[in-house]
């Protein structure tokens, strides 16, 4: 008798709440076309079910919430010249992002592991976003020849401001644990143990008609002052000094990408302590390794997104995607990071840098 295939996600009713559990541990819960369609159906059904009061999404105890879209699969589509399938993967993902932003029932995400790229797109639209001691948040797309998509040019600015959002988008910096709340990425921070013991039972007890404030109260009940941020560059970014430095470097719209790079190097060399020096050294290293075209387009997009709507951001992502996934940089980046795992820059180098104007002139 054959064993039934392991489902990539589970939809469970717990009390009056719908829990969506991502469960692809070997693939770090990466989003495939199948998973995206299952998520569309799960949220649509939950919205239509009058006996459900809220949506909650989390990972299945794998140390990962969601590591993003399955770009390895997209790379294979590109190599096979399956252009419609490759573009369709992203268009359906962006449609899911739009759906998540317009849910009528309150929703929450629990980052019980790493959340990157498309994983942020699954969760940053929820009014209640819970980080844990296992959370590692990052938007690392520039390292594989893409740019932070899934509406990130809108939600990063909205959640943590233009300067911090631009720093995260360009460098792919990792933000850990409680630092997510300090930067505005998460709304609450609890330990995984507190979520299981305190918060989830309260969510299960919610009744039909519960509000986002009610869901937030469940998360707040598990918070304690003892939960500390990790010691790292994300900690520097949460300090008054770090926030000021990020604003001066990444928030100065008179600086070009090369100007930002030069200013980072200057501040690294002039740093007065190891924490500050490490922040700018890691930022410099990330920019030096990432795809130059991705960085240029990301910087331009983050600046253009100021004052724009989510609809604008997702429409722009849809318009940009085909210009990226069929380019050499995407194939080289995915191969270097996920196939051969030699890291970036790829051994053959990045393709010659293209001006961001050539991308946006087609929109």
From TrEMBL:
Involved pathway(s): Amino-acid degradation; L-valine degradation
GO MF annotation terms: 3-hydroxyisobutyryl-CoA hydrolase activity
The organism's place on the tree of life at top rank: Eukaryota
Keyword set includes Hydrolase: yes
Keyword Manganese listed: no
Record field: catalytic activity: 3-hydroxy-2-methylpropanoyl-CoA + H2O = 3-hydroxy-2-methylpropanoate + CoA + H(+)
Alphabetical GO biological process terms: L-valine catabolic process
EC number(s) per entry: 3.1.2.4
Domain Enoyl-CoA hydratase/isomerase: 18-345
Keywords: Hydrolase
Family (UniProt): Belongs to the enoyl-CoA hydratase/isomerase family.
Function: Hydrolyzes 3-hydroxyisobutyryl-CoA (HIBYL-CoA), a saline catabolite. Has high activity toward isobutyryl-CoA. Could be an isobutyryl-CoA dehydrogenase that functions in valine catabolism.
Name recorded for this polypeptide: 3-hydroxyisobutyryl-CoA hydrolase
Native organism: Ostreococcus tauri
């Amino acid at each position: 008798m054959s064993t039934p295939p392991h489902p990539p996600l589970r939809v469970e009713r717990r009390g009056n709440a719908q829990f969506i559990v991502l469960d692809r541990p070997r693939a770090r819960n990466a989003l495939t076309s199948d998973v995206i369609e299952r998520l569309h159906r799960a949220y649509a059904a939950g919205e239509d079910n009058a006996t459900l009061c809220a949506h909650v999404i989390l990972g299945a105890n794998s140390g990962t919430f969601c590591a993003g879209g399955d770009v390895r699969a997209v790379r294979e589509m590109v190599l096979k010249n399956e252009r419609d399938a490759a573009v369709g993967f992203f268009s359906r993902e962006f449609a899911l992002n739009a759906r998540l932003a317009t849910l009528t029932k309150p929703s929450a995400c629990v980052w019980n592991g790493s959340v990157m790229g498309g994983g942020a797109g699954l969760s940053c639209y929820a009014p209640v976003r819970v980080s844990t001691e296992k959370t590692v948040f990052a938007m690392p797309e520039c390292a594989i020849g893409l740019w932070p998509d899934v509406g990130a040019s809108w939600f990063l600015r909205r959640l943590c401001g233009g300067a911090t959002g631009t720093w995260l988008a360009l460098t792919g910096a990792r933000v850990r644990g409680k630092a997510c709340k300090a930067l505005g990425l998460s709304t609450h921070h609890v330990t995984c143990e507190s979520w299981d013991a305190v918060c989830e039972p309260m969510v299960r007890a919610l009744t039909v008609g519960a509000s986002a404030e009610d869901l937030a109260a469940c998360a707040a009940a598990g918070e304690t002052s003892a939960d500390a941020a990790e010691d790292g560059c994300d900690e520097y970014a949460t300090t008054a000094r770090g926030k000021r430095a990020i604003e001066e470097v990444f928030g100065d719209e008179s600086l070009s990408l090369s100007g930002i790079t030069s200013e980072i190097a200057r501040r690294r060399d002039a740093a007065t302590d190891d924490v500050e020096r490490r922040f700018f050294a890691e930022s410099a290293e990330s920019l030096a390794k990432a795809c130059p075209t991705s960085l240029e387009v990301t910087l331009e997009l983050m600046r253009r997104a100021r004052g724009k709507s989510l609809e604008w951001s997702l429409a722009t992502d849809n318009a940009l995607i085909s210009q990226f996934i069929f380019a050499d940089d995407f194939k080289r980046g995915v191969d270097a990071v996920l196939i051969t795992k030699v890291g970036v820059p790829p051994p053959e180098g990045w393709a010659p840098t293209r001006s961001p104007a050539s991308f946006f002139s087609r929109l």
